[in-house]
Amino acid sequence: MELSERKKKILQYVIDDYIQTAVPVSSKSITEKHLTTVSSATVRSELSTLEELGYLMQPHTSAGRVPSIEAYKLYVSELMVKEKLSEKELEYIEEAFTNRSKDVDDILKSAAKVISELTQYTSVALSARDSEEIIRSVKMFRVRKSEALLVIVTDNKLLKDSVIALPDGMTDDTLGELNQLLENVISGKTFNEICSMKFSETVEEFQAYKEVFFKVVEALREYIASEGEVVLEGEEKMFAHPEYSDIDNVKSLMSVVTSKDKLVDLMSADGKDIMINIKIGSDGYDDIPSDCSVVTATYLTNGVKIGTYGVIGPTRMDYKKVVSVLENVGKILESIVSKW
Amino acid sequence: MELSERKKKILQYVIDDYIQTAVPVSSKSITEKHLTTVSSATVRSELSTLEELGYLMQPHTSAGRVPSIEAYKLYVSELMVKEKLSEKELEYIEEAFTNRSKDVDDILKSAAKVISELTQYTSVALSARDSEEIIRSVKMFRVRKSEALLVIVTDNKLLKDSVIALPDGMTDDTLGELNQLLENVISGKTFNEICSMKFSETVEEFQAYKEVFFKVVEALREYIASEGEVVLEGEEKMFAHPEYSDIDNVKSLMSVVTSKDKLVDLMSADGKDIMINIKIGSDGYDDIPSDCSVVTATYLTNGVKIGTYGVIGPTRMDYKKVVSVLENVGKILESIVSKW
DNA sequence: GTTAGCAGTCAAGGGCTTCGAGTGCTAACA
DNA sequence: TGTTAGCACTCGAAGCCCTTGACTGCTAAC
Questions:
Q1: Which nucleotide is nearest to A42 (CA to C1')?
Q2: Which residues 31-70 in chain B have a CB closer than 7 A to strand D?
Q3: Are the beta carbons of A247 and B247 separated by less than 8 Å?
Q4: Which residues of A touch B250 (CB under 8 A)?
Q5: B217 is in which domain, residue-wise?
Q6: Nearest 5°: CA angle at B219, between B213 and B222?
Q7: Residues 6+ apart with CB under 8 A from A298
Q8: What is the pLDDT of residue B203?
Q9: What's the whole-model pTM score?
Q10: Over 90: is that where the pLDDT of B31 sits?
C-alpha cells in the first residue's frame, strides 16, 4: 500500500525528530513543530495507522512513537533529504588530505579520522584487496646482506610489506637478473592471473634461484588472499549517544568493533555497483547487535576498488549526515588516487 | 613506622582477596580463609590500625576494608609474591613469536596481543624512537618514475616509511651516486648525530641533487622527532572487570586509551634503568583517571630501546600476574631482537 | 594481647505511592 | 468522510519507606 503524502510527511517528521532527540515522538510535538494546521488528535489517528502498517512502534502504551526498522529503510530510500555539508566541513575534508604522504595506509587512516570527526560516529576503514588490480611493477631491493624488501606497485598502491630471505652468496647481479625476470613475467598482469599461473617453464632458465622467485609469487598470493587492513577511529564517540549509556549495548558493539573478522564481514558490500550500502538493525546480519546500523561506501578508481569506508552506530543514526560525508570523502579520495 | 609481621600478612591477605573478588574484605573472611588461629575481633583491631596508618579504607561504616593507593604501592614493592606462569602460558608466549616476520611492527602487534590475552587487561605497545640508535644503512629505491622509497636499516629495525619525490630527469646512475653519498655520510652515525650535523660542505660536490639529499635528512629527523607507533589490544577486555560496569569509568578510561598523546605520555617511563614501571591511581598523573593503574616495561637490546609495553586497568589490578607476563614477554622479545 | 557479645550503621532491595506525559476512544461538527 | 475536543486510562519514572543482613566498634572479661 502506498502511503498518502501526509503520512509520509508525518513519518519523516517522526524519524527526523527521533534521530535528533532519541526520545519517542508524541503527536503533540508534531503539531507544534511541523504540522501546525491540524490538531494532535488528527496526527494521532495517522500515527496509529502508521503503527498498524509496521512503520512505528510504542515502547509502552503511554509513550510517543519510535520508528521501526522498516521505517528507517523507507526513510533512507525515499524520505530522507540529503544534507549539504557546510563550507567549513568541506574545507576540513580537503585539508585532511592535502600534504599527506601518498601511502594507501596513510590515506586509510586520514579518511577514517575525517569520517569519524564529521559524523561523530565510530568509523571503520578497510583497505581493499582487488584481485583484478594490475601489477605495474614487482621488485626486490636488498636491505641487508641476506634480506630483500619486496615492493609491489599497482595503479593505486605502493606495497612494501614482505621481507624475503635471500640465499647465501646471491650477488647483486643475480638479484638484478631476478628482478628483470619478475618484471617480464609479472608486470602487467592482475593478481588473479598470477594466482592461476604455473610458471614451470618460465623459470627453467633460472634454476639456481627459482626458490626465491617462488617466494615472491607466494608473497603476491598471500597478499591477495589476506584480508585488508582495518582501521578504526573514534571508538570513544559512541559514548556520546544515549543508547550507549547502557553498558551492555557498549559491550556488544565493542565486541564487534574489536574483532577484525566481524568488521571485515560487515564491511563487505553485498551490493554490485551500489556505492553506498546501508545495513540496518539485525536484518539478517548475525554479527551486529540488533540496534545497530552500518553505513559503508566502497570507492573505486578506474574500476578498481581502493577501499571501503563506513561508520557503525545506533540504528537511530543520522543517515543523511553520514551519507553526505561519505559521498564527499569519496569524491576527494578518488580525485587523489586517480592522479597517481 | 615499620609494620609488624602480622600486620603485613593481614594487609597482604586483604589486597590479594580484594584483587581477586573486587569486594571489600571483612575481618571474618580473613579469619576463615587465612588466619584461622585468631578471632575476627583480633583481626578487626589490626585492620583498624592499618586503616589509621592509611593503608586501608572503608567505603562505608558497615563494609569491609579496601586497600588504599599506599597499600598497593607497598604491595607491589614488598608484599606481592611474584607468580610463576604455567607451562601452557609460557608455550603460548613462545608460539606467538615464532614464524613471525621480523618486522618491528609485527612484533609490536604480537606482543600487545599476547600481553592482553594472558593478563586479560587492555594492553598498549609503543614502538621506541631511540635517538642513540646507530643507522646501519640508508638507501633510496626507485619505485615509480619520480618516486623513491627510503629504507633505513638499524640494528633493531627495518624502516620503510617515507616515499621521496625525485626531480624529473634523475637517472638511475645519479640515484646510485646519491645512495653512495648517503652511505658515506650517514651510515654508522646515530640519529642524534644526524640531527646536529650541518652537511653544508658534504654536499658541495653534489649541488644538482642536494635538494633530494636534504629531503632524506629531513625524513630521518622527522622519524626520530615523531612519537612512536602505538598499538592497542583488548579494549573490550576492560568490560570484564566490575569497576567498568559503570559507564562513566569506561568513558574516562576510553578517553585515555583512544588518545595517542595521552598514551604516549603515560607510557614514558620516568625511571632511569628500571625496567618495570608502575603508575598507580591518580598519583600525580593527570592523564589517568584516579582509579586506574598503568604497568609498563621498557625493553632494551644492546642498550637500545626496542619498545615499551604495558597494560592499563583498574587500580585493583592483578599486579603479580601482570609483572610476570611482562617479564616473560620481555625475555623472549630480547632474545628475538638480539639475533638480528 | 585476645576474645565474646552486643549495639549501631548503612547499602541494597522490595514494595508502595505519586506524578505526568501521552494515548485511544467517543461524540460532535464541517 | 475527515477533523476536533474532551476525557478516561495506562504506564514508566522517581521518590519514599521499610526490612534485611553484613560489618564494624566498643566494652568488659579473660
A1: D3
A2: 40-41, 44, 47-48, 51, 58, 61-65
A3: yes
A4: 239, 247, 250
A5: 135-225
A6: 140
A7: A128, A269, A275, A277, A305, A307, A308
A8: 66
A9: 0.89
A10: yes
